[in-house]
Amino acid sequence: MNLRHICVSALIGAATTVSFAQPNRIPSKIDSSRTFVLSGRVHPLATAANDQGEVESSFALPRVTMMLSPSAAQQAKLQQLLQDQQNPKSPSFHQWLTPEQYADRFGVSASDAAQIVTWLEGQGFTVDPVSRSRTFVSFSATAGQVQNSFGTAIHRYQVNGAMHYANASDPTIPAALSPLVSSIRGLHDFRPKPKLAKAKANWYLGRGQGNIMAPDDFATIYDITSMYSAGTTGSGQKIAIMGQTTILASDIAHFWNTFGLTSVKLVPVSVPGTGPFIVSQGDNDESALDIEWAGAVARNATIEFVYAGSAGSVWDSATYAVDNAVAPVISMSYGNCEMYDLFDLPSYRQTVQQANAEGITWLAAAGDQGATDCDAGNTVASGGLAVDAPGSIPEVTSMGGTSVSGSATYWNTSNTSTFGSAKGYIPEIAWNESAAAGQILGTGGGASMYFPQPSWQTSGGVPNDGWRHVPDIAFNASVYDVPYYVYCSQCSDTQGGVEYVGGTSAATPTMAGVVALLNQYLKTTGLGNINPTIYSLYQTTPSAFHNNITGNNIQACAYGSPGCSNGVEGYTATGSGYSSVVGFGSVDVTNLIKSWSTAAPAGPVLVTSLDQNPVYQGASESCGSTSSWNFQITLSEEAGFATSLTGFMVNGADYSSKISSIFSTSQIAARHSISGCMSLSGVNAPTNEVFTFTGGSGPTSWSTTLNVSFQGPQAQLNVGGATNAASYAQSYAPGMVMAVFGTGLGSLSQAASVTPLPEYMAGVEAVMCPVSCATATTYWNVPLYYVGPNQVNLQIPYEASGSVDLSIGNPYANVDYYFTVSATAPGIFTFLDGTQDVNPSRTASAGQTTFLFITGEGKVSPSLSDGTSPAAGTPTAKLPKPVQAVTVTVGGINAPTTFVGIPSGLVGVTQINFTVPSTVPKGRQPVIVTVGTTSTPAAYITIQ
């Protein structure tokens, strides 16, 4: 997470000396007595309400994987290599690495890997050979060994009638390993869910009158038939399908034979150590779709089905496929809402970047929950706008969904011998079938909450908001209009083994087939990340795309939930340019493939971006101006040509003479950027201004525009103080709701209405670190309760203690606030009218039982993850309560408590039920709660 923004006046690439020697990062023998907590690694479903108790110590965990991260220097070199591999003028262009070459440049050193293996074996684990790329180490373990070595117990959890296992607390690792270990996978068996979408069971009964997508229909609609006729059929190519179930090869053969696809081959590859290998309902539907339809497009290719057993997951399949360079194309129709995978996203991206460095193109589904990816299975969204990972990773091509028309106008009344009936291209709209499904169902899309906007994604109408947007492109994903035919005799809800499915899961393997055709046509061993070329190609060859697609991925949402406006939230496809619904739309495969080899233009391609939309802040940290609108502009050259910036206009006014004062240089190196700070005065916001940049000369001249949105005046970002949100005392405790006061905080007022609490809201995010975030290696993401321009309510992470730095702001600028966290710092919630009366009960009678709420109670047992609330239905006896004793006095007399705990729906707030002593005098009396040895400031209740 990048909370610090530094304005650099020029970022010009320079030649550097390359060295592949790997320094050792473990300074000495690994000392198990000095530990480091991997915070936030408890699965969201591993709650106290679902807890069925600890497993036996002999309980087997067949495959645990320690993911190893590159150093900062390695990561910087990897980023440069990934750019160079896509630069036709670089010696590294399309020079893909083997896993061993990747290990020598970006993996941990052989010595460090050996030390890790020695330590694991010393703990009693059975260790597999180190990965070829030296990016992970897998081992088998027992629950007892895990607890002894990683400090966390493994418990059973019952969720929706199924029994699972998971770690009950955050794992610890030796401190010497903290710079190397990014995550530990395999401590739970909550597996990613497939993105396939199926129609309601009774819908099949009347389907005889409708149109179904057959392989020849897809080829006709998306213009592939001429490529087949010319010999581009996927011959000699491989596609790796990611799965987590076994399949029947006879089912796949049945599908291919039905449609005359006799040359495609299937090679199942099971991931070692992840058994037992079983048929898993839901997963087998997904795998059948993915395998059958990848082969339906790439008809002479080999489909490598890489699958994990019940002791693994689809991510084990993916890491295995990358580490063994199984195929130059990966299709992955699995994912999660980003919020559920935040702490795993860095290691996921490492795997994807390694894949790109090896020349592997990675395709993933954009998700099937519209713009609200965290609301799978719901009828009304409540989790706010969200997108799906891994599709949100910039090095992954995210596949959205459209619906082709089922109108008889576009379909023949009879089928060919291979069951094709489409006449040609069929108009599409954005896929959104929530009404038909009776629940949220539509193409995923929107802005990532985690990954910044890549330089290649700043043109063609992509919002200039600083965040990665998905999807990139789309294919048909219809479930109820024109669904895909799939054969799966093992699947549920089929009619004689046949089922009709859709979802962005269908768009993913079909595009994987297209990439295999592209690889054959170009006679290349791989293309790596295809996204930069897709975005460039839209500018140079728009005929490669069906971009006239309208519709939306808007979903109904609960009033008051994050981002909900008038009961709906989502995005609309405008029918031109990019949209956060279908990307650039679907592709015309023949035009795409034939234009790809000439996609690099004859001259420079410049794209522009902003650090953020300008806001009026007076003096600027970055631009050093006062009383003006300050912002940073970046121009990135994407085509591999050096060029120069010669002209600059703002709404027709010529600013060319100011180029030298804004940018330290006007010379832009190939595939690099220049950035400059600019300030404008006299702008009457809100308004939009058109910036026009020109450069080069003669045949290599260029022009590009940037629409800049000037928002209303905003105060300068500042934190003036912070308090307990209940008592307003300046004292703080773990888990406490804290009120932060200042200026220029939130871009609008927004309250969280669901749990887990969001970590980014209304333009605000925050982290806390021990002592100082400038020097800390440990930080905790901060859950947000409320965000406004002058106040932010947040929860102090339970892990915080002692001297703490709160770093709060937006992704581009932040301020620090330093304070001390004590064991307890309780405060009673009172009415906001200045009376300090106990909220919600101002009055009570002697002998009556009433209740109040406090925050600042400190650590609780059983423990809760930051930002979370006990699950609904948790028995009262199992609700978390403060670990330190709680007492209540009314009028100085002890008041017996009948309940103390955190109820479902509350985060960091404890409810206390107490009985008013019969001896308390009538009138207004002070109420004081003591937690441990610390008492609250007095609140008041009137005894009647």
Plain-language structure description:
With 944 residues, this protein is α+β, with helices and mostly antiparallel strands. The protein folds into 5 domains: 35-70 and 107-185, no CATH class; 193-593, Peptidase S8/S53 domain (Rossmann fold); 606-710, Immunoglobulin-like (Sandwich), CATH 2.60.40; 718-821, Immunoglobulins (Immunoglobulin-like); 827-943, Immunoglobulin-like. 16% of the residues lie in helices and 30% in strands. Strands 12, 13, 14, 15, 17, 19, 20 and 23 form an 8-stranded mixed β-sheet that branches. Strands 52, 56, 57, 60, 61 and 62 form a 6-stranded mixed β-sheet that branches. β56 (886-890) and β57 form a beta hairpin. α7 packs across α8 (283-297) and α12 crosses α14. The two termini are 54 Å apart. Mean pLDDT is 88; it is low at 1-20.
Beta strand count: 62
Quote the CATH topology of the largest domain. Answer: Rossmann fold
Which spans have pLDDT < 50 for at least 5 consecutive residues? Answer: 1-20
Major sheet attributes = 8 strands, mixed
Q: Radius of gyration, Cα only, in angstroms?
A: 29 Å
How large a portion of the residues is in β-strands, by DSSP E?
A: 25-35%
Shape: globular
Q: How many domain units?
A: 5
Number of helices: 15
CATH architecture label of the largest domain: 3-Layer(aba) Sandwich
Name of the CATH class of the largest domain: Alpha Beta
Annotated CATH homologous superfamily of the largest domain: Peptidase S8/S53 domain
- Report, as a whole number of angstroms, the end-to-end distance: 54 Å
